[in-house]
Design brief:
Shape of chain A: globular
Largest sheet of chain A: 6 strands, mixed
Distance between the termini of chain A: 15 Å
Strand content of chain B: under 5%
Largest interface: A-B, 27 and 18 residues
Strand order of the largest sheet of chain A: 6-7-8-3-9-10
CATH class of chain B: Mainly Alpha
Order of helices and strands of chain A: EEEHEEHEHHHEHEHEEHHEEEEEEEEHEE
Radius of gyration of chain A: 24 Å
Number of domains of chain A: 2
Structural class of chain B: mainly alpha
Number of helices of chain A: 10
CATH superfamily of chain B: MetI-like
Oligomer: heterodimer
CATH topology of chain B: MetI-like fold
Structural class of chain A: alpha+beta
Number of strands of chain B: 0
CATH architecture of the largest domain in chain A: 3-Layer(aba) Sandwich
Mean pLDDT of chain A: 91
Order of helices and strands of chain B: HHHHHHHHHHH
Low-confidence stretches of chain B: none
Largest sheet of chain B: none
Low-confidence stretches of chain A: 358-370
Number of strands of chain A: 20
Number of helices of chain B: 11
CATH topology of the largest domain in chain A: Rossmann fold
Chain lengths: 370, 234
Amino acid sequence: MTLALEGIRVRRDGRSILEVEHLELVRGEVLALLGPNGAGKSTLLRVAALLDRPDEGAVRLDGRAARPGDRAAQRRFGVVLQRPLLLRGSVRYNVELPLRLRGAQRSERRGRVEAALELLGIAHLAGRRGDRLSGGEAQRVSIARALVTAPDVLFLDEPTAGLDPPARAALLRDVLTAVRERDVALLLVTHDRLEAQTAGRVAVLLAGRLRQVGSAGEVFGRPADQEVAQFLGLENLWEGTVTAARDGLLTVACGGLKVYAVGELPPGVPVRYCVRADEVTVGLLAASVPSSARNHVAGTVRSIAQRGMLRVVELDAGGVTIAAAVTRPAVEDLAIAPGVTLAATWKATAAHLIPVERAPAGRARPSAAG
Amino acid sequence: MGFIWDGFRNAIVLLVHGDREVWSVTARSLVVSGWATAVAVLLGVALGMAAVRGRFRGRGLLLALINTGMGLPPVVVGLFLVILLARNGPLGGLDILYTTRAMILAQGVIALPVAAGFTVTALQTLDPLTEVQLRALGAARWQVWLLLLREARLGLLAGVMGAFGAAVSEVGASLQVGANIPGQTRVLTTATVLETGMGRYDVAIALSLILLALIFVVNLVLTIAQQRGAAPWP
C-alpha cells in the first residue's frame, strides 16, 4: 500500500493555504505531521483521507488517482478527527457502525468489534452510552471505530488534544501498538513535538508548506532552516559566521564565543548554530577534564526552569545564552544555582549549522519532501 | 356560570355514550391532520436539509422564508388556496375544493414551514464535522443523511409535534377550503366553531376536550419516542 500526495494546492478565499509537492506514506509506516495551529495540518489530512477535494494535484492510492466520493478507496482508510464525534448510542453501536455501513454480516461484526475494543483496552465500555464517556475513553472509542474495518491507513488528527499528560501518553502508546500489530500506516497530525518523536518519520508543516521530512533524529537534530528550528523549540540557536574550516571541523564565531561544528562550509558564511539543550552537559570548572568534546564554554547560571522531568539551566557566556537540559539530581549534586559559574560542553557533531542564505523563508525544500 | 358546568357534564355524557357524529368528526380530524403532518414533515425535512447543507444563492432568503412561514396566518393560506383551487382558478382542474384533500393541502402548507424550521435548528445543533466523520466512516451519501437525521432526531421529533399541532389546531383555512360540510369535511376545530356559534356549549366543550386529548396522545407517543434517545442532564 502506498498513499501519495502529488502537487497538492488548496486555496481559501483566493489565498493558498496548502502546497505540498510530494508526500508519501507506505504500509506499516508511522508519519507524524508536525506543525503549529493553523499550519494546514487538518486540511492536509482531509485531502489525503479523500474528505476534501484539493484545488490542484492528486491523491494516489497504490498509484491510482483517488478522489473524494471514491468509496472503495475511502473504505481503505480509518479517520479520527480532532473531536471523537461519537453518535447517539452505545460504544458497541459506534464501533460497529463502519461495518454496518459496509453491509458486514452480524457474526463478522461481533468478532471484529470485540477485537477492536480489546485492542484499545475498552472492552468493558461496550455497553456504555457514547455521551457518558470521559474525553480519553471517547477518543479510544473513536480510534477503535476507525480500526474496526482493518484499514490500510489510519489518519489521526491531534488524537490526544484535550487529554491530560498521563492519558495522552497511554493513548499514544496503545495506538502505536495497535497500528504496528496490524501493520497499518499511520498519519499522525500533531503540534506536540514529543508526540511527533514517536513516529518513524516526521514532516514539518509551517504556513501550509512542507518544510522538512525525515526521520525524527534528522528533523530534530538537523532542522532544515531557522523557522523549523524555532518551531521545533531548538533551545540553542545562535547567529554566527564560519571563521575557519579544517578537516571537516568548522570554527564558528557566535557573539563572543568560539564554537565548533562538523560540516563543509567555507569561511565567511553566515550561519545559525544549533544545538539541542539535551546535548549540552554542564560541570564544575575545576572538574573539567580533557575529552573528545570540542566545545567547552564557561558561563554563569542565569536561571533554572522546569521542563517535564528535566531542568533547563541557562548560562550566560560572552553575551550568548546557552541552555542545557539536566536532571534534578544533577542540579542538586552540582549545587547549580543562579550566579554559579559552570562549564558547558558538547560535541561538535551534536551541533548543526544552517547557512542563512540557503533556505529563504516561505519556500519548501523539495529535496526534503517525500 | 352554570352553563359552563352543564357544558362539561353534557360533554362527558356525550363522550361516555359515544355520540356517532362526534367520533366521526374526531376520526376525520386525525386522518386529515395526520396526512397533512406526514406530507409536511417529508417535504419540510428535505427543505430544511437543503437550507442547512445547500451552497446556493438565496440560501439566506430561504431560511428567512421558512422562519416567516412558521407564523403563516391560516386564513391567508385558506384565501390563496380557495383562489387557486376554485373551479376557474389555476388549479381548478384538480377539483378538490371543499374536500378533505383540500384541507390536507391547506394544513400541510401551514405545517410545512414548522417542520422545515425545526429541521434546520435540529441539524444546525449538530457538530458540523459530524457529516465529514460519517463520510470518513465509509457512509454513502444517503447513509450520511439518514445518520444525520438519526442524530438530530430529538429536534426532528419536536418538529413533528409542532407540525401536527399546527395542522390539527388550525381552523381558518380548513373552514375556507373545506366549508365544514357535515359528514364530509367537518373536523374537530371547525365543528367547535360551529357549535359555539350556535350556543351549544356542551357539544363544543366535548369537541374541545377530544381535540386536547388527541393532541396530548399524539404528543405523548412522540415524546416517548423522542426521550428514549435523550441524555439526562447531569
